[in-house]
Write a structure and sequence with these properties.
By secondary structure, this protein is of the alpha+beta class. The chain has helices at residues 16-21, 25-29, 38-58, 65-75, 84-102, 157-170, 199-218, 227-230, 240-251, 262-271, 273-291, 313-322, 327-331, 339-346, 348-355, 384-391; strands at residues 108-116, 125-134, 137-143, 178-184, 192-198. Helix 3 (38-58) packs across helix 5. The radius of gyration is 26 Å and the shape is globular. It binds iron/sulfur cluster. The site of iron/sulfur cluster has 16 residues, from helix 2, helix 8 and helix 9.
Length: 392
């Protein structure tokens, strides 16, 4: 089955982080179409390439070098193709190769393995990118092409559901006691995340999932609006629970002292994480309703600010040049490409070899993030050691 035509279960593994928290979402989402974004389509294309390259490595009899070259040629015809995909799928393949080479014996490997976890989740199934078993360890490896949010393998419900499915399929043949989960996100600088747990931990998760999934499948339980939970929910624009929650965060203040404390600031920032995102989602949805000719009381759609563009830039420039406007100085601007753009064009390795010594890392602008963020906290406060060094 092609990546694009893959069927989706009501309680899919990729949305487990949502329905495990908000057990009402899956049935609510059923009312909305499952549309695919440009980024998701790009990810699908990269997955197709990744799958073939891993198959070619482990099973060249199935996908020969010739077959792979032909398939890549076909993929390149896709308008979303980018040569970068070859580099990023290299990182994924290198990772899988490294894991398998370091094992004491040749592992059993399955690529794009359909896993059935319906013992835990009603009608639950999914497709794991790569499953590997060696000795008593089950490896589940996932390729993620997104470059926005880093995804951690630690207690990742999608990965744990795949592990449950893979375990159920292989437990008779292999004495699995250890589960190793890996997410390879090659477009991010620290894009590989690993986590390991025991079979007992996985079974405990299975027990928890069973209860939550039963509620989610029947559309019972509670709504749990929250920035991360609602972000990709198809009902997010119209969900009353999310709407009420955000309105409450924004307006219900009650009787309070005139100044807020640091503690309150922290609490409020946490509570209001989704308010701005929700307002944007609501605006987009209301605009689409207005454009569809429906009424949203108090609002209407209008044409935004117009912009001008040439109908024929070459002809216009030619006329301007003939009339005495200096083309090079006035009509064109000469700008250097950014470091990242040049690196993308010539490739990471050649870039480093050629001009790596001219690159410095400038400190990033301070940013406020949640305490769970893995980066080290910074302050402007001068430490005793720094103060002492200055005096010398
Ligand atoms: S928008 Fe949020 S609260 Fe509403 S159903 Fe979706 S996940 Fe649940």
């Amino acid at each position: 089955m092609g990546h694009e035509e893959r069927a989706h279960a009501l309680l899919s593994a990729s949305s487990a982080h949502r329905w495990l928290k908000c057990t009402r979402c899956a049935r609510l989402e059923e009312q909305f179409p499952d549309t695919s974004s440009e980024a998701a389509k790009e990810g699908t294309l990269a997955h197709e390439l990744a799958e073939m390259r891993v198959r070619n490595y482990f099973n060249p009899g199935d996908i020969s070098k010739r077959k792979l070259t032909f398939a890549i040629k076909k993929l390149k015809e896709d308008p979303l193709w980018d040569n970068e995909m070859l580099t990023h799928t290299d990182t994924y393949l290198d990772y899988i190769r490294d894991v398998s080479i370091k094992l004491p014996a040749t592992p059993f490997v399955e690529v794009e393995k359909r896993v059935d976890f319906s013992k835990y989740v009603p009608e639950g199934f999914g497709t794991a990118d790569c499953i590997m078993i060696q000795g008593n360890t089950l490896f589940v490896i996932d390729f993620k092409y997104g470059k926005g949010v880093p995804v951690s393998a630690e207690e990742n419900p999608q990965m744990m559901l795949y592990a449950l499915g893979a375990y159920e399929a292989c437990k008779i043949l292999y004495p699995i006691t250890k589960i190793h989960l890996s997410i390879v996100q090659p477009r991010l600088p620290d894009g590989i995340s690993n986590w390991e747990c025991s079979l007992e931990d996985l079974m405990e998760f299975g027990g928890y999932v069973k209860g939550r999934a039963a509620l989610a499948f029947s559309g019972e339980g509670e709504f749990a609006p929250d920035e991360k939970t609602c972000k990709f929910c198809r009902a997010k624009n119209q969900c009353r629970a999310r709407s009420d929650h955000n309105v409450k965060q924004a307006f219900e203040l009650g009787e309070l002292p005139p100044l807020i404390t640091n503690e309150e600031a922290g609490q409020r920032l946490l509570a209001m994480r989704d308010v701005v995102a929700y307002q944007k989602d609501l605006q987009e949805w209301a605009l689409s309703e207005c454009l569809a000719g429906k009424e949203v009381p108090g609002w209407k759609a209008v044409e935004g600010r117009r912009s001008r563009d040439w109908t024929d830039m070459d002809a216009a420039f030619e006329r301007l040049t003939k009339s005495g406007v200096a083309a090079e100085e006035i009509l064109w601007e000469r700008k250097p490409l950014t470091l990242a753009q040049i690196e993308k064009i010539i490739g990471k390795k050649d870039f480093n070899d050629a001009v790596g010594e001219f690159v410095i890392q400038r400190p990033g602008k301070p940013a406020l993030v949640e305490i769970s963020d893995k980066r080290e906290a910074i302050t402007n406060k001068v430490t005793a050691q720094e103060a002492f060094q200055e005096e010398i």
